[in-house]
From TrEMBL:
This protein's record includes keyword Chloroplast: no
Keyword annotations: Membrane, Transmembrane, Transmembrane helix
Transmembrane segments: 6-23, 30-50, 56-75, 96-120, 140-170, 190-209, 215-233
PANTHER family per record: INNER MEMBRANE PROTEIN (PTHR36111:SF2), INNER MEMBRANE PROTEIN-RELATED (PTHR36111)
Domain of life from the UniProt record: Bacteria
Source organism per UniProt: Cytobacillus citreus
InterPro entries in UniProt: DUF554
Keyword Repeat attributed: no
Protein name (Swiss-Prot/TrEMBL): DUF554 domain-containing protein
A Pfam family recorded for this sequence: DUF554
């Protein structure tokens, strides 16, 4: 079952959120320090990912064009609008903004190499180990985020399941169309580009700056276009 890893990932996000909801009676000063700690850890994670790329020019170009596309379509606003809609449906929460929890958790869980690599492994080889590992990490992260951002974190499980599920479904046929060398190159540069976005999320969590990270998401697809062009240019020229 190629969706097993994705479903487990979504389930552990929900479980982590519910456990975090039970631990919400934490003093505000502790919550603030915990949030800053999470932000710093996310910054380090993003930096590690960003340094794994082989051609940082690809990362820069992808982020620039991704930002232009994202700003044009106002992806951050649309994601926030969805979060606000959830908040209206759920009612106001005394424990953080449902919209903020949904948006922040979604960006953390969706951006990154493990989501794509794990979904590809599930679809191509039926190997769910990467997604199982990601599920455990996401579950603990959801628990911690919920103590500060509230129940909105739970709804991030929906885009995670949809996103990874679609990749896994596509991956069941991808090896027939995409050469392994091209896929490996894409994963490396995608990891680096996603790492910069993760770094930006960490900065947001620390409160140092507000970066519209969702508007950078098209950069992942720009990476695919650039890497594909470079691969076939080197192959034929």
């Amino acid at each position: 079952m190629f969706l097993l890893g994705t479903l487990v990932n979504g389930l552990l996000i929900i479980v982590g959120t519910l456990l975090g909801k039970m631990l919400h009676r934490i003093p505000e000063n502790i919550k603030g320090t915990v949030m800053h700690s999470i932000g710093l850890a996310v910054i380090v994670l993003g930096l590690q990912m960003a340094l794994k790329g082989e051609d940082f020019l690809v990362v820069i170009i992808s982020l620039v064009f991704g930002a232009v596309i994202g700003e044009y379509f106002a992806l951050e606003n649309k994601l926030n609008t969805l979060g606000d809609w959830l908040e209206r449906k759920m009612g106001s929460s005394s424990q953080g903004s449902i919209s903020q929890g949904f948006v922040t958790a979604t960006l953390i869980f969706v951006i990154g190499a493990m989501a794509i690599i794990g979904a590809l492994d599930s679809g191509i080889r039926g190997d769910h180990d990467v997604l199982y590992t990601k599920a455990i990490i996401d579950g603990f992260t959801a628990l911690i985020l919920t103590t500060t951002l509230g129940i909105g974190v739970l709804f991030s499980a929906i885009p995670v399941v949809i996103y990874q599920g679609l990749i896994a479904l596509f991956a069941t046929q991808i090896d027939q169309f995409v050469p392994k060398l091209l896929m490996d190159s894409f994963i490396k540069e995608m990891t680096a580009t996603g790492g910069v976005m993760i770094f930006a999320i960490g900065l947001n969590l620390t409160g140092l700056i507000k970066i519209r990270v969702a508007n950078l998401l098209p950069g992942i697809f720009v990476v695919g276009v650039i890497v594909t062009i470079m691969y076939y240019y080197q192959l034929y020229f």
